């Protein structure tokens, strides 16, 4: 049996209207050029076609595993959990397929943050792009106690890394709030995140993003779900914040 890698890059994938393989190729090309080499890539694929599987076969020099997850619920939290469950590394780095690492030293800097055994989870800064080349909207992650209600000051799960042994799984009842609810649970269980205030990840902005097509009724449903899940922990100011967020969905 081969020695497990230190870090697993977990990439949940689907066809994404035909763009999924193109976005993933860009990300895999950058992963192939990382200075840090002690990692594997786990691609969980919910596509009904073959382009992502065929693309993964083009990277025999990379420690990459392609796993079909067509039988799972067709949503990001279930597919991300499948990738995390298949990971063998001590550290798990989530990377959505339309996002990519920024620079050849990105994985090395993330791994270095965990050299301190007290570090349980880590968030990095990010940039954004429309064309895959020009970077804009540089963002520094910031955690706050009411993040669970959707005011996301962290960014997407692509900025997240966590120790596999202690990292929770995403709540598969959630789509829009899957990331912020996860950050809330990590903070409660693992303490405050270690922050790397460098844009080590690039979030791609496009019309096919899940967040671009979220319906108001879904937002209301998920806000009510997290309210019920955490109602025993909510202060009066939390309730006021929740009501304010809910009201915005009716505007």
Classification by helices and strands: alpha/beta
Look at the structure and give the CATH class of the largest domain: Alpha Beta
Determine the number of helices (DSSP H or I, runs of at least 4 residues). Answer: 7
Mean pLDDT figure: 94
Helix content: 25-40%
Order of helices and strands: EHEHEHEEHEEEHEHH
- C-alpha termini separation: 57 Å
CATH structural architecture of the largest domain: Alpha-Beta Complex
Shape annotation: globular
- Percent of sequence in beta strands: 15-25%
Number of domains: 2
How many individual β-strands?
9
Given as residue ranges, the uncertain stretches (5+ residues, pLDDT < 50) are: none
Largest sheet: 9 strands, mixed
CATH superfamily of the largest domain: Spore Coat Polysaccharide Biosynthesis Protein SpsA, Chain A
Write the topology of this structure.
Blueprint: E1 7-13, H1 20-32, E2 39-45, H2 51-56, E3 64-68, H3 76-86, E4 91-94, E5 100-101, H4 106-113, E6 121-129, E7 136-139, E8 160-163, H5 178-190, E9 194-204, H6 216-230, H7 236-248
Helix pairs in contact: 6-7
Characterise this structure:
This protein is α/β, with parallel strands linked by helices and 251 residues long. The chain is 31% helix and 21% strand. It has seven helices and nine strands; from the N terminus they run βαβαβαββαβββαβαα. Strands 1, 2, 3, 4, 5, 6, 7, 8 and 9 form a nine-stranded mixed beta sheet that branches. Helix 6 (216-230) packs antiparallel against helix 7. The longest helix has 15 residues, at 216-230. The protein is globular, with a radius of gyration of 18 Å. The protein starts with 6 loop residues before the first strand and ends with a helix.
């Amino acid at each position: 049996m081969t020695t497990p890698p230190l870090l697993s890059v977990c990439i949940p994938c689907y066809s994404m209207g035909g763009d999924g393989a193109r976005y993933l190729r860009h990300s895999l090309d950058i992963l192939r050029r990382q200075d840090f080499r002690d990692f594997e890539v786990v691609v969980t694929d919910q596509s009904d076609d073959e382009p992502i599987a065929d693309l993964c076969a083009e990277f025999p020099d990379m420690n990459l595993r392609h796993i079909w997850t067509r039988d799972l619920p067709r949503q990001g939290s279930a597919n991300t959990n499948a990738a995390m469950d298949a990971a063998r590394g001590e550290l798990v780095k989530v990377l959505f397929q339309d996002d990519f690492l920024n620079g050849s030293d990105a994985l090395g800097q993330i791994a270095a943050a965990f050299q301190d055994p007290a570090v349980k989870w880590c968030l990095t800064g990010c940039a954004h792009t429309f064309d895959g080349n020009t970077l804009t909207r540089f963002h520094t992650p910031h955690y706050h106690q009411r993040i669970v209600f959707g005011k996301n000051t962290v960014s997407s799960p692509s900025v997240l890394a966590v120790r596999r042994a202690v990292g929770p799984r995403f709540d598969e009842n959630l789509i829009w709030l899957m990331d912020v609810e996860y950050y809330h649970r990590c903070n409660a269980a693992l303490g405050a995140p270690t922050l790397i205030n460098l844009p080590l990840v690039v979030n791609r902005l496009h019309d096919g993003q899940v967040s671009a097509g979220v319906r108001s009724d879904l937002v209301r449903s998920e806000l009510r779900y997290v309210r019920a899940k955490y109602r025993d922990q909510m202060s009066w100011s939390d309730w006021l914040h929740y009501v304010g967020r809910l009201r915005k969905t009716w505007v």
